[in-house]
Structure formats: C-alpha cells, structure tokens
Amino acid sequence: MDHMPKLPLRLGVLLSGTGRTLENLFERIEAGQIPAQIVVVIGSRADAPGLARARRRNVPAEVVRPRDYTDVPSFSAAITRSLEAHAADLAVLAGFLHFYSVPKSFENRVINIHPALLPAFGGKGFYGHHVHEAVLDAGVKISGCTVHFADAEYDRGPIIVQRTVPVLEGDTPDTLAVRVFEQEKEALPEAIRLIAEGRLRVEGHRVHVLPMPSGI
Q1: Residues 26, 92: contact at Cβ < 8 Å?
Q2: 104-128 burial by CB neighbour count: b if 16+ within 10 A, else e?
Q3: Among 3, 86, 114, 130, which one carries the catalytic annotation?
Q4: Fewer CB near the terminus (10 Å): N or C of the chain?
Q5: Is the alpha carbon torsion for 15, 38, 80, 144 positive or negative?
C-alpha cells in the first residue's frame, strides 16, 4: 500500500461474531471520519449477529463456513472469490476466528485487529478473552491492541498501528477487555485512513508511515 488508492476505499469485512467492530466502522464512515465504504461483509457462521448489522444497512452479507470446505486453501479461495466479486480494495479481519490464507493478489491488502501488543500474546488460539487472561496471568503492566497486515502466519504480519492501556490492580479479563476495545475503536479506523491516504510503505517486516500527500 505505497500508492494512492482510488477513494472511497472499498472494504470487505470478515467476522465471526457480534460485529461490534463492524458497527464502529459503519459509524465512523457515516460520520465522515474514514474515506471508505463497506461493500461486503463475510461471516464464518450463518448466525453471526454481525451479518444482521450489515443487512440492516443493505450491505451484502455472505456466509463462508470453514466446515463447508475440505481445507484452508479451499476455504480461503472462497473468501477471495467473494472479495473479488465485490471489488474490495482492502479486507478487514474484524473478529474473524479462522485462518485466511492471503493470496498473492491480496498481499498487503488484508488487515487484522488483535487485542494485545503484538508480537506478545498472539498466535493460534489467542483471541478474545484468551488473550486478556494470558495478559493478566503474565503480570504485565501494559496491554493494548495492534492493527497489522495479515500474512501467512497468525498475528505475525507487519504492524501498522498500536495503542496501549494500563493493566490495573484488580483487573479481570472483562474489565481489561472493555478498555482495550475502546482503543481498538480508534486504532482500526486510523489504520484504514492511513491506507486510504496512501501513507503506508511496507519494507520487509516494517511499515513506514509517510507524510500526508499534497492535495489531501
């Protein structure tokens, strides 16, 4: 993403649950804070509440269930076909609990939001409250969230944005999750804005944020 995309940026959002992150994106777009539009929402479960949020806004909502495919490559290919059918510029993993094998055509065009400061507390099995429980068990004093480009490994792609929260005495996974999610609501729109503005350059495993282009 080291060039100026055509605006508004066309987003495909992948989810498995309630769609809180999707709702935040809808609200930020409607408020004019992100130069983007959501063109398709893909759910890994037919009963994922996030799909209903999309349908209420007349956004195409499609179901791609991993159990309907024999392996990760065929499951991932179905996701890619849906993204391509809706001409998505960028895929956003927003609480998507399955591995999406990113094809070459979507390299640096898939981002993920993770509820910890990667590379700590990431990898297979680290999602939702499992992450916050691990953070508390480790006794760290700072946690937060990370937006990164997705690649061939869980939670290992180049980091775009991180935001921090303190870990407080008496925290539970629930109380910590609330504070982290408030930062996720800021970090993900920030990352999408930077991409929409053509301000990211990926070199190896590092993401460089470029100055605002003239005329923006």
Answers
A1: no
A2: eebebbbbbbbbbbbebbbeeebbe
A3: 114
A4: C
A5: negative
Give me the sign of the Cα torsion angle 56, 37, 192, 31: negative
The Cα–Cα gap between 71 and 60 comes to: 25
Domains and CATH numbers, the chain: 9-113+146-162+187-198 (3.40.50.170)
Please, which pLDDT band fits residue 214 given cuts at 50, 70 and 90? low
Decide: residue 191, CB within 10 A, 0-12 exposed, 13-18 middle, 19+ buried: buried
Q: CB-hemisphere CA count at 13 Å for 171?
A: 25
pTM beyond 0.90, yes or no: yes
- 114 is annotated as an active-site residue: yes
Residue in 133, 107, 132 with CA at minimum distance from that of residue 183: 132
- CA triplet 88, 78, 153: central angle to 5 degrees? 85
Distance CA 209, CA 97 (A): 28
Distance of alpha carbon 145 from its chain centroid, rounded?
Answer: 11
Neighbours of 53 (CB within 10 A): 20
Q: What is the pLDDT of residues 142-182, one digit of tens each?
A: 999 999 999 988 889 999 999 999 999 999 999 999 999 99
| Radius of gyration over every alpha carbon of the chain, rounded to an integer in angstroms | 17
